[in-house]
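User: two proteins, same treatment. go.

Assistant:
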Amino acid sequence: MNDQHHPPYSRRHFLRLSTATTSAWVLGSTSLFAANASESQAKVKLYRNKALGCFMGAAIADAMGGPVEGQHYKRIAKLYPDFQGLLKYGPPGQPELRPGYALSADPGNVTDDTYIRMDLVRYLLANDPPYSVEQFASWLVANGDFTNWWQTAVKPLRLIEAGKANAQTSGLTHRQGGGGGWWQPVAILHAGDPEKASTVTSDLCRIWKAPLEQDILSSVVAGQAVAFKEGSTIDSIVDAILADSGPLAQKLFTRAVELARKANNKEQLFELLHQHCLVKECTTDVDGPMPPHVEPIEYTDGPYAGILFAEQQPFALAYFVYGQGDPRKTLLPAVKGGRDADSIATNTASWLGAMSGESVWPADWIETTQKANITRMNLQQAAEDLVQRGLKHNTVRLDVL
């Protein structure tokens, strides 16, 4: 274990770090950079900007989607007519704040997805590469704070701790779905290297995931890593996701992208996705059959969500394609489209933030989200620390940024 060289960050210490300056690491080790110092500084500055765009985009999306999570898109439109930013938690949307969801009603507060993502950050900062699923599981059991985790995700870790499961295979019997919005830190460390980002994600997520969801998730993160590349576009990111996907994931992603390109407005996109892409059950095989059709409900005031990746991640990609690089046209529909809105929107925003940088996000969204969570976690500092880590271990491909 590399922890003996890098003492684990306490959660309290890590989450409450004040924002540090970046000047100490800009030049770092000269072996990491090209000979031209000004070009090196420009590349690092770009890396930092895209990392903050990716990481803060995920947090903003989580905070924006949290209050409307698990609802029908027509109910969201009825209760929150044409909202344009971060919402307060509570009625008329989600009625109850609680651990494993959100802890404060103020706009900008994140949900369990971001709390779990921050534990992944802590693991990546406390250990040197190469990473392994066994090391990850052991570290989480010893150091994770599961207070605000989605408790379903804690169950396989408890089985591993008790010796009743092993990290390599526990995902084969674990309930599938959920946990799709945790993995941006891997893409940030391996910015510009989609193959490595995919491989690391596929290995670490074995705790929870069977083959199909491993495949879908690793392709999502590969797309995030490609988004860091110089000249990346929506099409190049989509191509990278499809290239990394197995047969079934390719079909699911391709269907959603085609629907996004047909839609003339967000309401039409909602109707197309709900008509063609809802998933209630699905194989766990990477080359299995397409999921059976699910007839959409016209309207409901009750819970209305799907957490399987066969639905969730194609939805996320559809909104990314539909938004055409515009932050409001991209993220707001991903939230207003309902279902598992926070998790869907998180990856939609991650692709856009990594492609376009932190400045793509409205300044008030960034400020509100950072300030709303600062007593529990420092989101911007977490992104800064990941950048430092990527530079220190030369996992980022600066040459392609």
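Protein 2:
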Amino acid sequence: MYDSYDSGFYYPPNYYMNYWPARQYPDVNPKVLNQSAQASKKLMEEASLVLDQLAASEEFSTALMSAAQESNTAEVERLIHSLDVTSDVDITYNPDGLHLEFKSNIADIHCCTLTVALRWR
């Protein structure tokens, strides 16, 4: 009798829709977006340094996991920063993995964050 999408009821069109004023949008300025993208590219390069080292060196990975298991935060941070990471990195870990949050600022205003979550168990 009725199509599965047809409820069988008539809904009149909304005649008031045309009376809303046209929405005014501000002019766009992509300068900050461009700067954020450039800063994010740097964060990605630094994250790649860490990931490349973790993927290539079992010795480095073992040292990092051992320090984390012993809750030696200073050593974990030292190992990450020994890879020429200059960005601000928040490093957290738990028994299941490592969480790196790379952050960058533009003119002292936080612009971008790159999060890397790695599982080791």
